[in-house]
Amino acid sequence: MKLRNVYYRVRQFGFSAFMYLAPLRDAKVLSGAGSIYKIPELVKQEGLKKVLVVTTPGFIRRGSLTPFFESLTKAGVSYAVFSEVQPDPTTDCIEEAVAHYSKEQCEAIIAIGGGSVIDCSKALGARIARPKKSIPQMAGLLKVLKRIPNIYAVPTTAGTGSEATAGAVITNAADHYKFTILDLCLVPQYAILDPELTVGLPAHITAVTGMDALTHAVEAYTNRFCSPTAKKQAYEAVKLIYENLLTAYEDGSNIKARENMLLASYYAGMAINSNFIGYVHALAHGIGGLYGVTHGMANAIIMPYVLEAFGDAASKKLSNLAELVGIGGASEQKNAKAFIDSIREMNKKMNIPDKVAELQEKDFKTLTSRAVKEGNPTYPVPVIWEEKKFEEVLKWLR
Ligand code: NAD
Fold it and tell me: Where does the pLDDT of residue 7 fall: very low under 50, low under 70, confident under 90, or very high at 90 and above?
């Protein structure tokens, strides 16, 4: 092994051990239909004077939050609304949210939306805690290191698991570079898993966000240094996804399937908290940033190719996952292939393509260097890759 890779592995082991042993401030979880209506009481108990509800224009247009706003008023909780979050929040969007929060003199954040809304809320919280640091200055590991305002995270996709994670993914408005702020203080105070809010999620968003959760679970587990706890969380998530995603896709009003998908997404988020994501994400962030391909879609397409390219380095664990979901029983290599094939099959059933139509060869250099920069040395992936290997995978994706 190259000396540099030895150094990477030592660093990764250190990070993983730190994330495992550090007293992760897990979000307090409330779940079940109607659990969003417990928020006003929680806010009151904290003695907060005013909260900012962060959401998307769609939720306001559809009027689906009106009963929740009424419940805040009824409980005597003052609130303001910032509803300008677009998919993949940019640094500009965060600054708008910061200005709104400050103007309205808010003291906490209720984030109602997918990963984009929750990440925007985390970055907003980080800017409030560290007013002298810009968002790009907080990119990377442990750059916030200060308590941020309470976040009551209500995921409406299942999903990113952002309601559980210590990360916020932000796109730089200037150069479309997607980066992560990773700090334990970003873990929301509360994760409210209310399946009723995901019932209206269109089938194709259900599909790709569900595959995002699967990517988290698979990457956290196949990564090196996976702790027994992360393994348990990843297994739970994979099982729930295999049992519920297709049902949620085909019958969006199936509350049980929606509830289980929210749980799966939460567990997968917990797994990446201690054991990180991997090269699927490193490529997906670049592709998402450059072409606007949605995050879940990019992960869903890329995942089987990256797992295949890992070869024997991941086959034992992929074989275990095949056994977990009931498609094992053969040799390690055959089981691993069966698991990868089952991902492709699931994509196909949910009309997810198997190539990235937008991908252009002229961008390979940018994408490979961004993937290397993001993945190395941080992600404890099964095999460490350099630019050349990423380029090979990009060729398969066209
Ligand atoms: P999203 O939040 O971007 O939402 C996707 C679309 O679905 C949006 O148009 C949104 O308005 C709509 N939508 C959301 N909920 C809906 C509902 N219930 N009904 C109807 N429409 C609804 O998608 P996402 O996949 O949840 O989040 C993606 C973002 O999260 C990306 O920027 C990604 O990089 C980031 N991410 C963050 C983490 C983390 O740990 N912080 C992990 C993975 C991904």
Answer: very high
The whole-number pLDDT of residue 22 equals 67
Instruction: Check pocket membership of 296 for ligand 1, CB cut-off 6 A.
Output: yes
> What are the two backbone dihedrals, phi and then psi, of residue 170, each rounded to the nearest 5 degrees?
-125, 145
User: Do residues 210 and 261 touch, judged by C-beta distance below 8 A?
Assistant: yes
**CA of 269, closest atom in ligand 1:** 40
Q: Give all domains of the chain, ordered by start, each with its CATH number.
A: 23-197 (3.40.50.1970), 200-397 (1.20.1090.10)
What distance separates the 2 farthest-apart alpha carbons in the chain? 64
- Contact yes or no for 243/191 (Cβ under 8 A): no
- Residues recorded for the chain: 398
Residues whose CB falls within 8 Å of the CB of residue 181, separated by 6 or more in sequence, listed in order = 122, 123, 126, 135, 138, 139, 140, 143, 144, 167, 168, 170
Q: Is 198 in the pocket of ligand 1 (CB under 6 A)?
A: yes
Of the listed ranges 14-23, 145-154, 194-203, 286-295, the least confidently predicted one is 14-23
Q: What is the pTM of this model?
A: 0.96
Q: How far is CA 126 from CA 4, 86, 100, 130, in A?
A: 33, 19, 15, 6
Res 60: pLDDT: 97
For residue 4, report the distance from its CA to the centre of ligand 1, in Å.
Answer: 36
